[in-house]
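Run log // design_07
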């Protein structure tokens, strides 16, 4: 009986199925990995091997992750996803989540100063909101009796 071989190429790697050797991966004629159970497992192995490495960057991350009092939390961006999201791990909770890159800022002294200013303005706004509520509560309400006609 003849050996059956099926082959395909994926991202520069050659994947070959043989009824004797199962599935093997080679690159430029050199066998790299063998006895992989499925083609999907081969693709996952290749994708993991080719995954781009990124340097970790200190960041400030806001909504939906790390949202505390409307202010960004300190964290670390670890990798990029499709050029529009990053994986971020926050310092406070140590949790990792995919975040839109528009919600992530560099953790720099300048940005931290701006956040401190925003926090101060936010506190002022809370005080002003309290004053507004107090003034509004002092307004005289309309009462039905004020609208009744004399008999």
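design_07 sequence
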């Amino acid at each position: 009986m003849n050996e059956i071989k099926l082959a395909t190429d994926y991202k520069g790697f050659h994947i070959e199925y043989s009824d004797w050797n199962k599935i093997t991966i080679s690159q430029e004629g050199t066998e790299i990995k063998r006895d992989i159970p499925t083609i999907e497992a081969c693709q996952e192995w290749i994708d993991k091997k080719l995954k781009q490495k990124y340097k970790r960057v200190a960041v400030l991350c806001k909504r939906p992750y790390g949202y505390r009092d409307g202010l960004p939390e300190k964290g670390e961006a670890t990798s990029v996803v499709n050029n529009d999201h990053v994986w971020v791990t926050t310092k406070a909770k140590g949790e990792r989540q995919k975040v839109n890159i528009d919600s992530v800022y560099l953790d720099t002294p300048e940005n931290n100063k701006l956040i401190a200013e925003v926090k101060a303005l936010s506190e002022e706004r809370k005080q002003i909101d309290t004053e507004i509520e107090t003034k509004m509560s002092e307004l005289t309400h309309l009462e039905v009796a004020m609208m009744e006609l004399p008999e």
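The helical segments are 39-50, 109-138.
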